[in-house]
Amino acid sequence: MGRISEDKIQEIRDRTDIVEVVSSYLPLKRSGVNNQGLCPFHQEKSPSFNVNSARQIFHCFGCGVGGNVFSFLMRMEGLSFPDAVRRLGEKVGIEVEEEAVSPAEVRRREERERLLRINEVAGGFYHQTLLEDDAGVAGRRYLRQRGYEGETVRAFQLGFAPEGWESLAKHLAGKNFSSEDVQKAGLVRPGKQDRGDYDLFRNRLLFPIHDLQGRMVAFGGRVLDDSLPKYINSPETAVYHKGQTLYGLYQARDAMRRSDEALVVEGYFDVLALHRAGFAGAVATCGTALTADHARLLKRYADKILLVFDEDAAGRQATFRAMDALLPVGLSVSVVPLPTGEDPDSLIKARGEEGFRNCLEAARPVLEVFIEEQLRINDQSVEGCARAAEQVLERIRRLPGDLERSLYLQRLATLTNLDVALLQSKVRGGSVVQSSVRHTVDRSPPARRPSAETGQAQKYLLRLMLVDDQQRRRVRDEGTGELFLDDLFCGLADYLLGCEDEDGRLPENLVDASLDEAQQSLLAGLVFQEDRGWADNPEKIFTDCRRAVNKSVLRQRLKDLGRLMEEAQGNNDEAAEMQYLRERTEINRKLRN
């Protein structure tokens, strides 16, 4: 999408009432100056979702999500920012004109629109064939045999590709689509020796793959017998990238938001079976392993991921590949055990909804399963134990949370009889061998790392910046880098300083599209908080916040010094050891004071 002018964005924002927009998705009830309702982004029974008309922002005190009207629509509909601006512009009668773009960009957009249109027409052709045409009899019979009737077929817009070699190619040609564009859409292949194009999908059940706006971007095709290949999928195109697309996400995202949980399965029919049985938060990859892009996509809708893969060797391998993609983004990942030889589709047929729910209740954290697997497949020798530990440590390093890493290191130490301190040093990237060759003295300044201890203090300081112009100027004078350890808080502090007008005051509507999702949510939450005596003693608040940050820096340096002293002792470097000891003594003195 091209760039939309800031003036146009502001005009649309000024003409839009966030309360009206949010009310079109969920009921709101007036509560003081705010409007409250049940959060659409996580499951809750008591309303903690607040919308403020004066400031045109929303914030959920349950899950922490917040922002302005554009970010609300982006989350609800899976829209990009330009698409959200356009959608709201249409609603308030403002035409969104984009600033000039290059001819190449114009051609790229036009091609994307043509490919999307071709997929839409092809999907309609396949769907009608399955529902109504004689050519779709075999497909209808196959679905009935597997227990799928009209509701599921229509919800996922299933289709059937006729047996003929040119059925779709002729249909699209009759709609005046060029052969070149249809080939780019991946639906036909060029014939040889001057023969016409022929269809990619023939005599197959078709599963349309949708983007987050519900547009068809690709198809998966399954044979009706045991012939091979069992499945073929659309190739990657300008509108379809399988490493960034999940089958069923368009249909599953609302359920995932409500439950904060996503089921990741292996196949198209597994998704259909779970949706039909009431487990509507199910998705599948499109013939590829789960990627980091998939992980980031899932995190937009849920924090807990349940992997429901086959129990065979291939399924276990896919489980651990998915683990490697999901854990680094901070998702909670568990493995759902299935009876041997069963998949979700067959299990639900045999044991019903209750049988599958029993499997869900037996889900275990994926890293626990991985640890057991590594200890099982490696022998009990010293070498085997070391191999298993190295594999597990590689995964523990990817965990973003310090507490979770610590607990898993303790678990690994217990299972392998290895020293937990040794494992901790390995996770930090060090080892006994590595430390023995270090002879230089570390003269770097104390590390500045965000910590849980300072999180609340930094929030207080940001809130003080919102309500006290004088203290905000003080932050500017002392420097945000000296007062905020966390990049999120520091970036938001810089943003607030940049929002000041000529008189050094902040505007009323602060939550802007230039902020990322985390910053919008944090800022909206701070704005929603009532003053609660914030201005009573701003000097004390500022001083306390600065002291908390300084203490955190010193405590982190103490931890680093402990590690450095151990290394110096191992290297017999008395000079370095004494230097670290003097620094540690001085830091302890500062902390006591």
Strand content: 5-15%
How much is the average pLDDT?
Answer: 86
Radius of gyration computed on alpha carbons: 29 Å
Q: Main β-sheet: number of strands, strand sense, barrel status?
A: 6 strands, mixed
SS element count, helices: 26
CATH fold-level name of the largest domain: DNAb Helicase, Chain A
- Helix content class: 40-55%
Q: Globular, elongated, flat, extended or rod-shaped: what is the shape?
A: globular
Give the tally of structural domains: 5
Q: What would CATH call the class of the largest domain?
A: Mainly Alpha
Gap between N and C termini = 57 Å
Side by side, the strands of the main sheet go: 12-14-13-15-16-17
Features:
DNA primase DNAg catalytic core, N-terminal domain, single chain, 17 strands, DNA Primase, Chain A, globular, alpha+beta, 26 helices, 593 residues
What's the helix and strand layout?
Layout: H1 6-15, H2 18-23, E1 29-31, E2 34-37, E3 49-52, E4 57-60, E5 66-67, H3 69-77, H4 81-91, H5 103-131, H6 137-145, H7 150-155, E6 159-161, H8 167-174, H9 179-184, E7 188-189, E8 198-199, E9 204-210, E10 216-222, E11 231-233, E12 246-247, H10 249-259, E13 261-265, H11 268-276, E14 282-285, H12 292-299, E15 304-308, H13 313-326, E16 332-335, H14 344-361, E17 364-365, H15 366-377, H16 382-396, H17 402-416, H18 420-427, H19 432-435, H20 452-467, H21 469-478, H22 480-483, H23 487-498, H24 517-528, H25 538-570, H26 574-592
Parallel strand pairs: 13-14, 13-15, 15-16
Antiparallel strand pairs: 1-2, 2-3, 3-4, 4-5, 6-9, 7-8, 9-10, 10-11, 12-14, 16-17
